[in-house]
Amino acid sequence: DVLDTAKWEGRLEGLAEGEAKGKAEGLVEGKADALRQTAAKMKRMGMPTADIATCTGLSAEEIEKL
Q1: Which site among 15, 24, 32, 56 is 20 to 30 Å from 1 CA-CA?
Q2: Does the global pTM surpass 0.70?
Protein backbone atom coordinates (compact mmCIF):
# COMPACT_ATOMS: atom_id res chain seq x y z
CA ASP A 1 0.00 0.00 0.00
CA VAL A 2 0.96 3.67 -0.25
CA LEU A 3 2.15 3.94 3.37
CA ASP A 4 4.45 0.93 3.02
CA THR A 5 5.84 2.33 -0.23
CA ALA A 6 6.54 5.68 1.43
CA LYS A 7 8.28 3.96 4.35
CA TRP A 8 10.40 1.89 1.96
CA GLU A 9 11.35 4.96 -0.07
CA GLY A 10 12.25 6.79 3.14
CA ARG A 11 14.50 3.94 4.22
CA LEU A 12 16.24 3.85 0.85
CA GLU A 13 16.73 7.61 0.93
CA GLY A 14 18.19 7.38 4.43
CA LEU A 15 20.56 4.61 3.37
CA ALA A 16 21.72 6.62 0.35
CA GLU A 17 22.33 9.70 2.50
CA GLY A 18 24.24 7.65 5.05
CA GLU A 19 26.39 6.07 2.35
CA ALA A 20 27.19 9.46 0.80
CA LYS A 21 28.09 10.91 4.20
CA GLY A 22 30.33 7.92 4.95
CA LYS A 23 32.15 8.27 1.64
CA ALA A 24 32.70 11.99 2.19
CA GLU A 25 34.03 11.39 5.70
CA GLY A 26 36.31 8.67 4.36
CA LEU A 27 37.74 11.00 1.73
CA VAL A 28 38.40 13.71 4.31
CA GLU A 29 40.10 11.25 6.65
CA GLY A 30 42.13 9.83 3.76
CA LYS A 31 43.39 13.28 2.81
CA ALA A 32 44.24 14.06 6.44
CA ASP A 33 46.14 10.78 6.73
CA ALA A 34 48.09 11.58 3.56
CA LEU A 35 49.04 14.98 4.99
CA ARG A 36 50.23 13.36 8.22
CA GLN A 37 52.31 10.85 6.26
CA THR A 38 53.87 13.62 4.19
CA ALA A 39 54.61 15.65 7.31
CA ALA A 40 56.22 12.64 8.97
CA LYS A 41 58.45 12.13 5.95
CA MET A 42 59.41 15.81 5.92
CA LYS A 43 60.22 15.58 9.62
CA ARG A 44 62.44 12.52 9.04
CA MET A 45 64.24 14.51 6.35
CA GLY A 46 65.07 17.15 8.95
CA MET A 47 62.79 19.95 7.80
CA PRO A 48 61.94 22.54 10.45
CA THR A 49 58.52 22.13 12.07
CA ALA A 50 57.47 25.63 11.01
CA ASP A 51 58.16 24.81 7.35
CA ILE A 52 56.27 21.52 7.60
CA ALA A 53 53.33 23.35 9.16
CA THR A 54 53.34 25.92 6.36
CA CYS A 55 53.40 23.23 3.67
CA THR A 56 50.83 20.88 5.18
CA GLY A 57 48.56 23.10 7.23
CA LEU A 58 49.12 20.88 10.28
CA SER A 59 49.80 22.50 13.63
CA ALA A 60 53.24 22.33 15.24
CA GLU A 61 51.69 20.16 17.97
CA GLU A 62 50.37 17.68 15.42
CA ILE A 63 53.76 17.53 13.72
CA GLU A 64 55.63 16.99 16.97
CA LYS A 65 53.41 13.97 17.72
CA LEU A 66 54.45 12.28 14.47
Answers
A1: 15
A2: no
